[in-house]
Every structure is written in C-alpha cells, then in structure tokens.
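Risk mitigation, structural track. In case the binding assays with flavin-adenine dinucleotide fail to produce interpretable data, a predicted complex structure has been prepared as a fallback.
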Amino acid sequence: MEDVAVSIEAVRSVGDGGIAVELSSPSGFAAAPGQFVNLSAEVAGEEVSRVYTISSPDVDRTFETTVEVDPEGAFSPWLAEASPGTTVRMSGPYGNAYYEGEPRVVIVAGGPGVGPAVAIAERALADGGEAAVVYRDEVPLHRARLDSLATAGATVHVLDAEEDLAPAVADAVSGTEDEQVFVYGFDGFVGQARAAIDAAGGDRTAAKVENFG
Ligand SMILES: Cc1cc2nc3c(=O)[nH]c(=O)nc-3n(C[C@H](O)[C@H](O)[C@H](O)COP(=O)(O)OP(=O)(O)OC[C@H]3O[C@@H](n4cnc5c(N)ncnc54)[C@H](O)[C@@H]3O)c2cc1C
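Fallback model:
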C-alpha cells in the first residue's frame, strides 16, 4: 500500500522510554509480524518519515508498532505525544524477515527489536508452535508480554545491556530442521547476534535478519 491515511488509536507506555503505537489497519491491509511500515507526518512544519516494525501478532483491525523514543529524534518524540485520532500516512508492508508460519521460532532482539520478538513469539504459540526469545536492552520493554510468553511455555531470556548474547542464544537455538532464527535490532547488535548464532552451532546465513540501521 502506498501513502494511505491511518489513524493512531492509542499510544501506550511499554516501559521506560518505550511506547506501543496502535494504528488502524486500512481496508485490505495484510502484513505479518516482523514486516515494517513507513510512517509519515508533518512535524514542526516539515515532512518526516521513519520506518517501524509490526509488533502485534496480527493486523486484523488494528496493528501495533513498538518505538524506543529518542529524545533527540525528529519523529519518535512526536509519536509519543500523538493523541488518539491523529492521522499519519503509511506505506508498506516491507521487508523479508518476517514470520511465515515456522513451527519453531527463535528471535534474537536488541532494543526496539523486542516488538517483532514478542509479536512473532505470540503468533507462533497461537499457531501451536514453539518460541524462544533472547532480548537485550538497557531498559527492558514489554515485560508483561514477555512474562506471559514464558508462562505460556516459551523460552525467554532478558539480558542486561552489556551481557554476552552467546550463552542465552546457545540455550535458545536447538538446531532442529523446523527451527527459524530471526534477528532484529540496530547494526552493532546484529553483528553480535550473528556471531552468537555461529557460536551456538546455528546457521547465521539461514537467519532472517532485519537491521534497523
Ligand atoms: C527496517 C527498520 C525497522 C525499524 N524498526 C523500528 C522499530 O520497530 N522501533 C523503533 O523504535 N525503531 C525502528 N527503526 C528505527 C526508526 O526508523 C528510527 O530510525 C528511530 O525511531 C529514530 O527516529 P527519530 O526520528 O526519533 O530520530 P532521528 O531524527 O532519526 O535521530 C536519531 C538520532 O540521530 C541524531 N541525529 C540526527 N541527525 C543527526 C546529524 N545530522 N548528526 C548527528 N546526529 C544526528 C539525533 O540527535 C538522534 O539522537 C527501524 C529502522 C529500520 C531501518
């Protein structure tokens, strides 16, 4: 879809510095958790566009994206202050690193990568599959959804910002044929996640990776 008007239905805090933005799904919108959309709005008289990854398990009536607000940024603080009913323009979905019904999912997430991580894990469990999440951040977001995932049987590792990814990734990656590993996060994190997948005996080239830049 190109440049469709969508309404912000709600903006909720999901932890210190993190928000979940719920948007109306336009008619005919089809997207999977892990794909991303481009959102545009006029901010302080200028047109600003940024891309955000879908963090809801489905997009049936509304969809969600999880944003780590950069106080110095142009767009994320504006989103954090947006009132319900505010209209933004959306294009998408885009991206190749998304859930496609794999029976076992392992998601390695840094920072706002927690959004697609919880969404994919929730969707996989709802589909009768297995899920493991390894999430590293300075201040963890989505604690309630991560706790619910663990209660529902998912493996969940929440790591401190400086913690080594390798042991948790080794615990999460089983190496079975029906397993798909996903990586979401900013550039430095993605490199460390790939190295941890290698160290765990996984295949980094088979991982579905979205680099947030
Ligand atoms: C595929 C993809 C998916 C993404 N998914 C998500 C997601 O799900 N959630 C999420 O939170 N983010 C995601 N991002 C990142 C997101 O698109 C934005 O980059 C992020 O929200 C910051 O936008 P901003 O407008 O708030 O900050 P920006 O205005 O882009 O600024 C970011 C930082 O750079 C600094 N800066 C800006 N310009 C300069 C300059 N000229 N010189 C020096 N410093 C400068 C600013 O001070 C600020 O600290 C994704 C990115 C990609 C590529």
